[in-house]
Protein backbone atom coordinates (compact mmCIF):
# COMPACT_ATOMS: atom_id res chain seq x y z
CA UNK A 1 0.00 0.00 0.00
CA UNK A 2 1.11 3.56 -0.71
CA UNK A 3 0.11 6.11 1.91
CA UNK A 4 -0.08 9.83 1.15
CA UNK A 5 -0.23 12.62 3.73
CA UNK A 6 -1.59 16.01 2.81
CA UNK A 7 -4.50 18.12 1.70
CA UNK A 8 -7.82 17.05 0.28
CA UNK A 9 -10.16 19.81 -0.83
CA UNK A 10 -12.83 21.04 -3.19
CA UNK A 11 -11.62 22.41 -6.55
CA UNK A 12 -14.05 24.96 -7.93
CA UNK A 13 -12.93 25.01 -11.56
CA UNK A 14 -13.99 27.92 -13.76
CA UNK A 15 -16.37 26.94 -16.55
CA UNK A 16 -15.17 29.87 -18.63
CA UNK A 17 -11.58 30.54 -19.61
CA UNK A 18 -10.03 33.71 -18.25
CA UNK A 19 -9.44 35.68 -15.07
CA UNK A 20 -11.45 34.69 -11.99
CA UNK A 21 -13.02 38.14 -11.71
CA UNK A 22 -14.67 37.56 -15.10
CA UNK A 23 -15.83 33.98 -14.49
CA UNK A 24 -19.57 33.46 -14.07
CA UNK A 25 -19.76 29.82 -12.97
CA UNK A 26 -17.70 26.96 -11.56
CA UNK A 27 -17.74 23.16 -11.51
CA UNK A 28 -17.20 21.36 -8.20
CA UNK A 29 -14.50 18.68 -8.25
CA UNK A 30 -12.53 16.79 -5.60
CA UNK A 31 -8.86 17.75 -5.45
CA UNK A 32 -5.72 18.37 -3.43
CA UNK A 33 -2.39 17.07 -4.71
CA UNK A 34 -1.83 14.18 -2.23
CA UNK A 35 -5.47 13.12 -2.65
CA UNK A 36 -5.10 13.25 -6.43
CA UNK A 37 -2.11 10.92 -6.14
CA UNK A 38 -3.87 8.25 -4.08
CA UNK A 39 -6.94 8.26 -6.34
CA UNK A 40 -4.74 7.88 -9.41
CA UNK A 41 -2.81 5.08 -7.69
CA UNK A 42 -6.05 3.24 -6.98
CA UNK A 43 -7.12 3.57 -10.62
CA UNK A 44 -3.72 2.22 -11.63
CA UNK A 45 -4.14 -0.88 -9.51
CA UNK A 46 -2.20 0.12 -6.38
CA UNK A 47 -3.79 -0.04 -2.90
CA UNK A 48 -3.67 3.44 -1.39
CA UNK A 49 -4.65 5.44 1.68
CA UNK A 50 -4.77 9.14 2.56
CA UNK A 51 -3.86 10.83 5.83
CA UNK A 52 -5.73 14.12 6.02
CA UNK A 53 -8.52 16.10 7.66
CA UNK A 54 -11.84 17.44 6.37
CA UNK A 55 -14.52 19.50 8.04
CA UNK A 56 -17.66 18.07 9.62
CA UNK A 57 -19.61 19.68 6.80
CA UNK A 58 -21.27 18.76 3.47
CA UNK A 59 -18.04 19.24 1.50
CA UNK A 60 -16.29 16.84 3.86
CA UNK A 61 -19.10 14.34 3.33
CA UNK A 62 -18.69 14.74 -0.44
CA UNK A 63 -14.94 14.10 -0.34
CA UNK A 64 -15.19 11.06 1.94
CA UNK A 65 -17.81 9.55 -0.33
CA UNK A 66 -15.77 10.24 -3.46
CA UNK A 67 -12.64 8.66 -1.98
CA UNK A 68 -14.60 5.60 -0.91
CA UNK A 69 -16.04 5.23 -4.40
CA UNK A 70 -12.48 5.31 -5.77
CA UNK A 71 -11.35 2.46 -3.51
CA UNK A 72 -9.02 4.66 -1.45
CA UNK A 73 -8.79 3.85 2.26
CA UNK A 74 -10.21 6.69 4.39
CA UNK A 75 -9.17 5.05 7.67
CA UNK A 76 -6.75 7.89 8.45
CA UNK A 77 -8.94 10.85 7.48
CA UNK A 78 -10.36 12.72 10.45
CA UNK A 79 -13.34 15.06 10.71
CA UNK A 80 -12.70 18.53 12.13
CA UNK A 81 -15.39 20.26 14.19
CA UNK A 82 -13.37 23.48 14.43
CA UNK A 83 -12.41 24.10 10.79
CA UNK A 84 -14.21 23.72 7.48
CA UNK A 85 -13.14 21.57 4.53
CA UNK A 86 -10.58 23.26 2.29
CA UNK A 87 -11.60 24.90 -0.97
CA UNK A 88 -9.66 26.31 -3.90
CA UNK A 89 -10.78 28.28 -6.93
CA UNK A 90 -9.13 27.38 -10.22
CA UNK A 91 -8.96 29.57 -13.31
CA UNK A 92 -7.97 28.10 -16.66
CA UNK A 93 -6.05 30.10 -19.23
CA UNK A 94 -5.14 27.98 -22.22
CA UNK A 95 -5.93 24.83 -20.18
CA UNK A 96 -3.22 25.90 -17.69
CA UNK A 97 -4.58 26.22 -14.13
CA UNK A 98 -3.92 28.97 -11.62
CA UNK A 99 -5.09 28.61 -8.04
CA UNK A 100 -6.45 30.64 -5.13
CA UNK A 101 -6.26 28.58 -1.92
CA UNK A 102 -8.16 29.48 1.23
CA UNK A 103 -6.58 29.49 4.67
CA UNK A 104 -7.73 28.35 8.11
CA UNK A 105 -9.11 25.04 6.87
CA UNK A 106 -9.23 21.51 8.24
CA UNK A 107 -6.12 20.11 6.54
CA UNK A 108 -4.00 22.81 8.19
CA UNK A 109 -5.28 21.65 11.59
CA UNK A 110 -3.74 18.15 11.73
CA UNK A 111 -2.44 17.51 15.23
CA UNK A 112 0.04 14.93 16.49
CA UNK A 113 -2.67 12.90 18.24
CA UNK A 114 -4.61 12.70 14.96
CA UNK A 115 -1.94 10.35 13.60
CA UNK A 116 -1.84 7.99 16.58
CA UNK A 117 -3.83 5.32 14.73
CA UNK A 118 -1.64 5.31 11.60
CA UNK A 119 0.03 1.93 11.15
CA UNK A 120 3.17 2.62 9.12
CA UNK A 121 3.76 -1.14 8.95
CA UNK A 122 0.99 -1.34 6.34
CA UNK A 123 2.80 1.03 3.97
CA UNK A 124 5.28 0.29 1.21
CA UNK A 125 5.98 4.02 0.78
CA UNK A 126 4.79 7.36 2.19
CA UNK A 127 4.19 10.25 -0.20
CA UNK A 128 4.03 13.95 0.74
CA UNK A 129 4.00 17.46 -0.71
CA UNK A 130 4.76 20.98 0.52
CA UNK A 131 1.34 22.49 1.28
CA UNK A 132 1.04 21.21 4.87
CA UNK A 133 4.39 22.84 5.66
CA UNK A 134 2.75 26.25 5.27
CA UNK A 135 0.74 26.26 8.52
CA UNK A 136 0.87 24.93 12.07
CA UNK A 137 -0.02 22.52 13.59
CA UNK A 138 0.04 20.52 10.34
CA UNK A 139 3.64 21.52 9.61
CA UNK A 140 5.15 20.09 12.80
CA UNK A 141 2.84 17.07 12.77
CA UNK A 142 3.82 16.22 9.20
CA UNK A 143 7.57 16.67 9.65
CA UNK A 144 7.60 14.58 12.82
CA UNK A 145 5.57 11.86 11.11
CA UNK A 146 7.85 11.81 8.07
CA UNK A 147 11.00 11.58 10.17
CA UNK A 148 9.58 8.55 11.96
CA UNK A 149 8.19 6.97 8.76
CA UNK A 150 11.60 7.27 7.07
CA UNK A 151 13.00 4.77 9.56
CA UNK A 152 10.68 2.11 8.09
CA UNK A 153 9.76 2.92 4.46
CA UNK A 154 10.95 5.05 1.53
CA UNK A 155 9.48 8.53 1.10
CA UNK A 156 8.48 10.36 -2.07
CA UNK A 157 8.14 14.14 -2.29
CA UNK A 158 6.40 16.32 -4.87
CA UNK A 159 7.80 19.80 -4.20
CA UNK A 160 4.72 21.49 -5.71
CA UNK A 161 5.36 25.09 -4.58
CA UNK A 162 2.31 27.27 -3.79
CA UNK A 163 3.80 30.74 -3.32
CA UNK A 164 0.52 32.39 -2.29
CA UNK A 165 0.63 30.38 0.96
CA UNK A 166 4.03 31.82 1.85
CA UNK A 167 3.71 35.57 1.21
CA UNK A 168 6.27 37.37 3.34
CA UNK A 169 7.59 33.99 4.61
CA UNK A 170 9.60 32.82 1.63
CA UNK A 171 12.76 32.12 3.64
CA UNK A 172 10.75 29.85 5.92
CA UNK A 173 9.37 28.09 2.84
CA UNK A 174 12.86 27.45 1.47
CA UNK A 175 13.96 25.93 4.81
CA UNK A 176 10.95 23.62 4.91
CA UNK A 177 11.43 22.55 1.29
CA UNK A 178 15.05 21.74 2.11
CA UNK A 179 13.82 19.56 4.98
CA UNK A 180 11.52 17.72 2.57
CA UNK A 181 14.33 17.23 0.08
CA UNK A 182 16.61 15.81 2.78
CA UNK A 183 13.96 13.30 3.83
CA UNK A 184 12.89 12.06 0.39
CA UNK A 185 14.19 9.05 -1.50
CA UNK A 186 12.10 9.94 -4.58
CA UNK A 187 11.70 13.57 -5.65
CA UNK A 188 9.41 15.00 -8.32
CA UNK A 189 9.70 18.64 -9.34
CA UNK A 190 8.73 20.79 -12.31
CA UNK A 191 11.57 22.31 -14.29
CA UNK A 192 10.35 25.86 -13.54
CA UNK A 193 10.23 25.07 -9.82
CA UNK A 194 13.73 23.60 -9.98
CA UNK A 195 15.06 26.76 -11.63
CA UNK A 196 13.24 28.93 -9.09
CA UNK A 197 14.82 27.06 -6.19
CA UNK A 198 18.24 27.23 -7.84
CA UNK A 199 17.91 31.00 -8.12
CA UNK A 200 17.44 31.02 -4.35
CA UNK A 201 20.42 28.80 -3.58
CA UNK A 202 18.78 25.36 -3.48
CA UNK A 203 20.27 22.87 -5.94
CA UNK A 204 18.35 19.60 -6.17
CA UNK A 205 21.53 17.80 -7.23
CA UNK A 206 23.03 18.47 -3.80
CA UNK A 207 20.53 16.17 -2.05
CA UNK A 208 20.90 12.44 -1.46
CA UNK A 209 17.92 11.16 -3.46
CA UNK A 210 17.63 7.76 -5.12
CA UNK A 211 15.34 8.86 -7.97
CA UNK A 212 14.62 12.34 -9.33
CA UNK A 213 11.86 13.12 -11.84
CA UNK A 214 11.86 16.53 -13.51
CA UNK A 215 8.64 17.24 -15.39
CA UNK A 216 8.72 19.65 -18.33
CA UNK A 217 5.09 19.88 -19.41
CA UNK A 218 4.70 19.55 -23.17
CA UNK A 219 8.44 18.75 -23.45
CA UNK A 220 8.22 15.47 -21.54
CA UNK A 221 10.30 14.62 -18.48
CA UNK A 222 13.75 13.59 -17.30
CA UNK A 223 14.66 10.90 -14.78
CA UNK A 224 17.88 10.70 -12.79
CA UNK A 225 18.87 7.55 -10.93
CA UNK A 226 22.31 6.91 -9.44
CA UNK A 227 24.31 8.32 -12.32
CA UNK A 228 21.86 7.31 -15.05
CA UNK A 229 19.92 10.07 -16.81
CA UNK A 230 17.12 9.46 -19.29
CA UNK A 231 15.07 11.95 -21.24
CA UNK A 232 11.49 10.84 -21.92
CA UNK A 233 9.65 12.42 -24.88
CA UNK A 234 6.11 13.70 -24.32
CA UNK A 235 2.96 11.81 -25.21
CA UNK A 236 1.14 14.27 -27.48
CA UNK A 237 -2.48 15.16 -26.78
CA UNK A 238 -4.70 18.24 -27.07
CA UNK A 239 -5.28 19.10 -23.39
CA UNK A 240 -8.63 20.20 -22.03
CA UNK A 241 -7.59 20.80 -18.40
CA UNK A 242 -4.11 20.24 -16.95
CA UNK A 243 -5.26 20.45 -13.32
CA UNK A 244 -3.64 17.54 -11.52
CA UNK A 245 -1.45 16.42 -14.43
CA UNK A 246 1.65 16.57 -12.25
CA UNK A 247 -0.10 14.46 -9.64
CA UNK A 248 -1.06 11.95 -12.33
CA UNK A 249 2.61 11.76 -13.34
CA UNK A 250 3.66 11.25 -9.71
CA UNK A 251 1.10 8.48 -9.21
CA UNK A 252 2.06 6.71 -12.43
CA UNK A 253 5.75 6.87 -11.50
CA UNK A 254 5.03 5.27 -8.12
CA UNK A 255 2.56 2.76 -9.61
CA UNK A 256 5.13 1.63 -12.15
CA UNK A 257 7.74 1.07 -9.44
CA UNK A 258 5.20 -0.75 -7.26
CA UNK A 259 4.06 -3.11 -10.01
CA UNK A 260 7.65 -3.76 -11.08
CA UNK A 261 8.41 -4.58 -7.42
CA UNK A 262 11.11 -1.91 -7.36
CA UNK A 263 9.50 0.52 -4.93
CA UNK A 264 11.43 -0.51 -1.82
CA UNK A 265 14.79 -1.31 -3.40
CA UNK A 266 14.74 1.44 -6.07
CA UNK A 267 17.24 -0.64 -8.03
CA UNK A 268 16.46 0.13 -11.66
CA UNK A 269 18.12 -0.67 -14.96
CA UNK A 270 18.17 1.96 -17.67
CA UNK A 271 15.45 0.04 -19.53
CA UNK A 272 13.23 -0.03 -16.44
CA UNK A 273 13.83 3.67 -15.88
CA UNK A 274 12.75 4.43 -19.44
CA UNK A 275 9.64 2.24 -19.15
CA UNK A 276 8.70 3.96 -15.92
CA UNK A 277 9.13 7.39 -17.49
CA UNK A 278 7.10 6.54 -20.59
CA UNK A 279 4.28 5.17 -18.44
CA UNK A 280 4.27 8.31 -16.27
CA UNK A 281 4.27 10.64 -19.30
CA UNK A 282 1.42 8.71 -20.88
CA UNK A 283 -0.81 8.73 -17.80
CA UNK A 284 -0.15 12.43 -17.17
CA UNK A 285 -1.04 13.29 -20.76
CA UNK A 286 -4.25 11.23 -20.75
CA UNK A 287 -5.31 12.88 -17.50
CA UNK A 288 -5.53 16.25 -19.29
CA UNK A 289 -8.30 15.04 -21.61
CA UNK A 290 -10.96 15.37 -18.88
CA UNK A 291 -11.85 18.23 -16.55
CA UNK A 292 -10.88 18.02 -12.90
CA UNK A 293 -7.91 16.53 -11.08
CA UNK A 294 -9.35 13.01 -10.68
CA UNK A 295 -9.08 12.30 -14.37
CA UNK A 296 -6.60 9.42 -14.63
CA UNK A 297 -8.05 6.52 -16.65
CA UNK A 298 -8.30 3.10 -15.03
CA UNK A 299 -5.47 0.75 -15.91
CA UNK A 300 -7.87 -1.64 -17.67
CA UNK A 301 -8.93 1.15 -20.05
CA UNK A 302 -5.38 1.67 -21.34
CA UNK A 303 -3.98 -1.86 -20.99
CA UNK A 304 -3.50 -2.30 -24.75
CA UNK A 305 -1.20 0.74 -25.11
CA UNK A 306 2.49 -0.14 -25.58
CA UNK A 307 3.63 1.97 -22.60
CA UNK A 308 1.23 0.07 -20.33
CA UNK A 309 1.56 -3.56 -21.42
CA UNK A 310 4.41 -4.63 -19.13
CA UNK A 311 2.87 -2.85 -16.14
CA UNK A 312 -0.51 -4.44 -16.85
CA UNK A 313 1.01 -7.91 -17.17
CA UNK A 314 2.47 -7.54 -13.68
CA UNK A 315 -0.91 -6.43 -12.31
CA UNK A 316 -2.69 -9.45 -13.79
CA UNK A 317 -0.07 -11.88 -12.54
CA UNK A 318 -0.21 -10.46 -8.99
CA UNK A 319 -4.01 -10.75 -8.99
CA UNK A 320 -3.73 -14.41 -9.96
CA UNK A 321 -1.42 -15.30 -7.07
Give a verbal description of the structure.
- The chain has 321 residues and is α/β, with parallel strands linked by helices.
- It has one domain: 3-Layer(aba) Sandwich (UDP-N-acetylmuramoyl-L-alanine:D-glutamate ligase).
- The protein contains eight helices and 13 strands.
- A nine-stranded mixed sheet has the order 5-4-1-8-9-10-11-12-13, sandwiched between helices. Strands 3-2-6-7 form a four-stranded mixed sheet.
- Strand 12 and strand 13 form a beta hairpin.
- Helix 1 packs across helix 6.
- The longest helix is centred in the last third of the chain and has 18 residues.
- The protein is globular.
- The two termini are 17 Å apart.
Order of helices and strands: EEEHEHEEEEHEHEHEEEHHH
How many helices in DSSP terms? 8
Computed over alpha carbons, the radius of gyration is 18 Å
Distance between the termini: 17 Å
Query: How many beta-strand elements?
Result: 13
Write out the strand line-up for the largest beta sheet, numbering strands in chain order.
Answer: 5-4-1-8-9-10-11-12-13
Shape: globular
Largest sheet: 9 strands, mixed
Give me the CATH superfamily.
Ribokinase
Extract low-pLDDT stretches. Answer: none
Mean pLDDT: 93
Q: Work out the count of structural domains.
A: 1
Amino acid sequence: MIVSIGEILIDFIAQQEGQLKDVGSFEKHAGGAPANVVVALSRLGVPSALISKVGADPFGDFLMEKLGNEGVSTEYILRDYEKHTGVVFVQLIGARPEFILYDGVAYFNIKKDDLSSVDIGKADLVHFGSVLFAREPSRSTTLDFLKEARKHVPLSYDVNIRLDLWKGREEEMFKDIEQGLKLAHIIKIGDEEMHYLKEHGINIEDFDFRLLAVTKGSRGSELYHEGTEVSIPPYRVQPVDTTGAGDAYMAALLASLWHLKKLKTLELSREELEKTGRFANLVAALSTLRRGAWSVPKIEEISSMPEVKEIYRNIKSSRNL
